[in-house]
Structure formats: structure tokens, C-alpha cells
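Example 3.2
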Amino acid sequence: MNVIVIAPHADDEVLGCGGTIAAHAAAGDQVTVVLLTRGNPDIFDQDLIVRIREELKEAHRVLGVKDQILLDFPAPGLESIPNYVVADQLRKIVQENRPGLVYTPFGGDLHSDHRAAYDATLVATRPIAGCPVGRVLCYETLSETEWGDVLTQNAFVPNVFRDIEPHLEKKMAAMACYKSQLRDRPHPRNLDVIRMLAHVRGAVCGLHAAEAFCLVREVICGNGAMPQEK
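Structure, written as C-alpha cells:
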């Protein structure tokens, strides 16, 4: 199966579904990570921008990611780009890669770039015109999802859990590659906290370690197969 993981920023893909990515790779699935943005040089030092891209490549080697598509929309500021422009880029990638499964950030995250990525994903994966995507899942991103707006009833309430116990150490090793993004406790973007969340998500569904997702859409054809498998 072809799988696409959409990341607004480098490290979101590991925070949200690093163990799941490793599990897909171990199963022989073709995983493509789409990084939507590059740091705005008016805000971030150029050396840091280059360093983060190198950290991403090293993290993906650890997880077994075979392909990366690195776009250059501004970060922060993805929401300043018309949604149809971002969605059109993603639609072309979906048509070229033919994924059966797409992972994207949760639409209620605090960061506006994450919300923009979610909105563009929903447009790009609409089940029309032979779209191959059978399943769309939202992942949670520590330091963004838990700080989102809950007053509008837009809190992250997972209904899909993936066992990542066999792949937890790979997730941790991949996140350790993002040295520029890690913080000291009690900040949530900390290796100890990331491991704790995996165990908490596992505990709520009878596993030792898990990643949690919200199911956005699942299309099952008449023969029980996903659209890609027809």
C-alpha cells in the first residue's frame, strides 16, 4: 500500500505518527512524507532552516521513509496562501502517488499552519474523480493539539489507535534526530514526554504503547476493498 503523511513542519510527522510510519515501512508499505513548508527567512536564521531539513532526512532514514516531497510554502504563514493553491499541490501529489491512506494534522490544532494543512488535505482527498484515498486519519502533535481551542468543541478525541510498541524505540530515535526542535521538561516537545504519551495512548486501548488518530473518512467498496485495491 502507498501511504502519504502530510506534515506542515519538519518534526510533526514524527511527533504525530513516527511509530506508525515505522510500522508501515516494516510491513513493506511505500511511505511518502510531504513537508509543506520551509521556515520564513525573515523570522528564522538560514542556518537553522537548512539544519532542520537535514534533521528531517536523518529522522526519515531511521523510520524507513523512502520518499520525501519538500515544498516551500512559508512557515509560519501557510494560512496566508489561498487554500486552493495548497490543495492543488496536494491533489497532484495524491494523483501521482496513488495512496490508499493519508495522515494529516488535526484540524483543531493551535497552530494555524496545521489547520491550513488539514483543510487543504480534505480538499485534495475528496472521494471524486477516481481519488485513490480510502482512508484519511488525523494525528495529534504535542505542543499544538493539546493547546487547541476546546471551547468550540473542536478537541482531539481519538477513535483509532495503532499499536507501536514494536516501533516505539525507532520513533524515539527519529525524534532525537530533531535536536533543534527538542525542549527541556516540562515542555511537551521533550523525549520523555513523547514516550509518556505513547504509553498513555496505549493504556486507554489495552496496549503498551500506541499512537492515536481521528478518523475523518473511510471508503469501503462493494467487495470490501479500499479504492486503491479495486
